UniProtKB/TrEMBL annotation:
Major site of localization recorded for this protein: membrane
PROSITE patterns attached to this UniProt entry: MFS (PS50850)
Compartments (UniProt record): Cell membrane
InterPro entries, alphabetized: MFS, MFS_dom, MFS_trans_sf
Major facilitator superfamily (MFS) profile domain span: 3-416
Transmembrane stretches, start-end: 12-30, 36-57, 69-90, 164-181, 215-241, 247-267, 279-296, 302-325, 337-356, 390-409
Protein name: MFS transporter
Annotated CDD domains: MFS_MefA_like (cd06173)
Keyword Membrane: yes
Pfam family name, one: MFS_1
Amino acid sequence: MQVFFAIWFGQLMSLIGSSLTGFALGVWVYQRTGSVTQLALISVSTVLPKILISPFAGAFVDRWNRRQAMLFGDTGAGLVTLAIAILFFVGKLEIWQIYLGTAVSSICSSFQWPAYLAATTQLVPKQHLSRASGLIHLSESIAQLTSPILAGVLVTTIQIQGVFLLDFITFLFALITLLFIKFPEHRTKADNQEKSSLLREILQGWTYIKTRPGLLGLTLLVAATNSLGGIVEVLATPLILSFASPAALGTVLSIGGSGMLVGTLLMSTWGGSQHLMRNVFCFLLLSGLSILSVGLKADTSLVALSAFLFFLSLPITNTSIDVIFQKKVVPDIQGRVFALMGMITESCIPVSYLLAGPLADRVFEPLLAPNGALAGNIGQLIGIGKGRGIALMFIIIGALTMAIAIIAYQYPRLRLVEKELPDAIADPATKNHHESFSE
């Protein structure tokens, strides 16, 4: 855990730096163009390349040393930041270059993330995987909470070029951490054999998931809930602003972020229930209930409580899922499996982003307008007017999330995946103490 903690701290610094730059670039793009669409395209250029490249990145991660893959990802992202900073300093930075740089960073992340998860399996004893995964999600929570505040202060004090420099320093810190910490050497069964084609290795990762119904069911469960969560992510801001001020929106988001922080701290210290699937089902139900309750009444206190509980449940659910895969997937192909799982579970999110607006504007908002088709019945319960159509969407999405969790629980291969599927990893503490380590 001490070795893992050192790596985790380096990655935390890098993540905070990247989040600062992302926030600063978003402000710069919006101030320069005044276009929400231009701003949204940054998110698209972040998500799509990672989805497309992940299967290939996972195969390379399994071929390479885990540290090499992490070094590749961090170095690539650091060089992108340096290139954008140079273009900014010489006054040549254009919007399309930001999209390109974001896409390249996304590709680098598709190598770094599965390597990070696979390296964790090598470094951390099985009984501490929940805590280690909790720490990984804790770093995301810290970045989410601190980066907007820090970036807002830094942009006005040291300006955007100072943010670029600070981000590059955090990348160097992460690289130095990786270079000076020893990793257990990663050996694959094919080390002394001719390597198969890249496509065949990718298919091996898919076959591993497909032939284990519990893991396939878990992947599809995450994909289904992610697709609903993408709609919630897009519509939360307009829903809250329909009855509350921007300041109240900021307060609600901060309370939600504190819920995520509490959830990650719980997992990184307590580790959660030993029955990981119980965590998944219970906290998915809590997530659905939280989403549903947001739509019941235009009340800031209710929304704040729901946001806290929703974000509290996220890291507990995600950490439990990560640990199940870390325990049940053979280390030789973890890179491929983690990358494929990420591709499958995230591929539906851009579709949700695209559907959310039209569904709200053209379908649900008119239904609960003062003279809408549902104003005389459902409108009497949850209200009518601006934002109440989105509120109805939240109620439906929350109910669907709970229904998905209940239906998934009925599938025994998924419910019993921890018992039926044997652990595929050995505890590092029980390995031969003469195992060689890479320099």
